[in-house]
Amino acid sequence: MIARVGMADEFIILWEQVGDLESAHQILNYISHLFIQPFNLSEHELFKQVKMGLALSYDCGENPE
Fold it and tell me: Residue 1: is its pLDDT beyond 80?
């Protein structure tokens, strides 16, 4: 699930069943590589900057506490 939050350029990606920290890092690397190349818009190259954070939760939803 992807949701826009805050300013127009802030997004949250909810990725279920990631597994472990190494798998989460692989996902972050995959997403960051999508933004390496510039976007082309009307003969202009647009470069972007991506900043990411990571939060893992184990056994989420298993217990109401």
Answer: no
Q: Is the pTM of this model over 0.90?
A: no
CA–CA dist 30, 24 (Å, integer): 10
Could you state, in order of their start, the residue ranges of all structural domains in the chain? 1-64
> What's at 22, amino acid-wise?
E
Q: Output 16 or 40, whichever has higher pLDDT.
A: 40
Closest by CA to 25, choosing from 15, 35, 12, is 15
Contacts of 60 (CB under 8 A, 6+ apart): none
Q: Is 28 exposed, middle or buried (0-12, 13-18, 19+ CB in 10 A)?
A: middle
Which tokens belong to 1? 């699930």
Across-strand partners of 65? none
